[in-house]
Design goal:
Length: about 425
């Protein structure tokens, strides 16, 4: 499916540029853009319906995938034409800023334009500076992410009902529905991180090191869009260092220290030579105090929260406060911070999912004999390293809700793997 959609995008791009070159259509016009989107969408729905997948799961879910595709399109058009009535969560200041910076990029005013704004600027150059192009690409990438997750699930030895459950969550979890329909970077980042997990899983099962490199490339692409996703690179090195053996048991050996040294060199090189590209958020951080000051600056607005048990401006404070900050990042808005019905809905549709994933994930670690236990530990490492790093960059419930969805795929994996393991444990007792 991914290859077919890629061919479709390439063909459509060539057609659009041909029409643009001969000035046959006005690509600035929303009407013309909408005609292209309509035609592309009809073709994509046809591809979904005719996709002959080896997995019975995805074949049975075709109509749900079409439904989520249509819902995302409707949300996209609501954001474009009806946001004055009710604005979608997350749409507004950030989406307008990305659109403005991307247009500056198109006009060759490149000062300070990088990351998602630069990527969006390239999209605007290829097509035309119209936000609909960027939003529609986000919608398409969210559908491709569903297919990547289906591929990931097909490689897991778990019951089909949990695979179906996980894919349905991915299709309809509200925040992802919205963020993949507006002009934000979340859809691209989730797609890239899903790709990295897919490659990691192939390495885990086959031992082919090329997939580690492929996973790292996807992570670096995501890091270019948002520096905090470097957490996945840290997790990847940790897992390889401690579980780089045939049985994927976590243990310390000679290769642990070798790979640990390579990881240190990798992060030093990235920070020293490519920091402006991949780690813009870390610019100017030279001490624990600088790190903490950045996190405190992230606490703004009515949704800001305080998550420090003790003063953070020391290594001890960093260690003590990190778990509580990670908890707030994953589960805000927590009940004692609720300001109204909106926060209750956000908790029930987002926070509760992350809580349950971790709750069942840690519960499943107590299963003595479960074939996916080591894989569950590995996926938990991905989830916890990202939660740790982002917890110090976010101190606002609204921002936390948006950023934690970047890691939606690993939490889905934690949930379905742990539910499968717990169901087998209960059956045997």
């Amino acid at each position: 499916m991914q290859i077919k959609v890629l061919y479709l995008i390439i063909s459509g791009t060539l057609l659009i540029n041909l029409l643009k070159g001969f000035n046959l259509v006005n690509l600035e016009s929303n009407f013309v853009v909408n005609i292209f989107i309509l035609l592309f969408s009809i073709i994509i729905i046809f591809l979904i319906l005719t996709e002959n997948n080896n997995s019975k799961i995805i074949n049975n879910l075709k109509y749900f995938i079409i439904l989520t595709f249509v819902i995302r399109l409707l949300l996209m058009y609501w954001d474009v034409y009806f946001s004055s009535i009710v604005s979608l969560p997350g749409s507004g200041m950030d989406t307008l800023a990305f659109d403005r910076w991307a247009k500056e990029y198109v006009n060759n005013d490149l000062n300070g334009v990088n990351g998602y704004a630069a990527v969006l600027g390239i999209i605007y150059k290829i097509y035309y500076p119209n936000a609909l192009w960027g939003q529609y690409l986000n919608v398409i990438l969210s559908i491709l992410t569903i297919y990547i997750v289906q591929e990931i699930f097909s490689k897991l030895e778990i019951k089909d009902k949990y695979k179906v459950f996980g894919i349905l969550i991915l299709c309809f979890i509200p925040n992802y529905l919205i963020s993949s329909s507006i002009l934000l970077r979340e859809s691209i980042v989730i797609f890239l991180l899903a790709l990295s997990i897919r490659n990691f899983l192939i390495w885990w099962q086959s031992g082919k090191n090329i997939y580690v490199l492929n996973s790292l490339i996807s992570i670096l692409c995501a890091t270019y869009l948002h520096s905090g996703t470097i957490a996945y690179a840290l997790a990847l090195f940790l897992i390889i260092a401690f579980a780089n053996n045939k049985d994927r048991n976590f243990k310390i050996n000679i290769s642990t220290f070798t790979l640990g040294g390579l990881a240190i060199v990798f992060f030093i090189v990235i920070y020293s030579f490519f920091g402006n590209i991949f780690l813009g958020y870390a610019n100017g951080i030279e001490s624990v105090e600088d790190f903490v000051d950045k996190s405190e600056n992230a606490a703004y607005g009515n949704a800001a929260y305080s998550a420090n048990l003790i003063e953070s401006n020391s290594v001890l404070g960093l260690l003590v406060n990190s778990p509580i900050r990670a908890l707030y990042f994953l589960m805000s808005p927590l009940p004692w911070d609720w300001r109204g019905l909106g926060d209750v809905i956000a908790f029930l549709t987002s926070s509760l999912f992350y809580f349950l994933a971790l709750f069942y994930g840690f519960k499943a670690l107590n299963i003595k004999k479960y074939r996916n236990k080591n894989l569950l530990i590995a996926i938990l490492i991905f989830s916890l390293t990202s939660a740790f790093i982002y917890s110090w960059g976010v101190s606002n419930a609204g921002t936390a809700i948006r950023h934690r969805d970047k890691f939606l795929v690993v939490y889905l994996m934690i949930l379905v793997i742990s539910l499968d393991g717990l169901s087998k444990k209960n059956k045997n007792t």
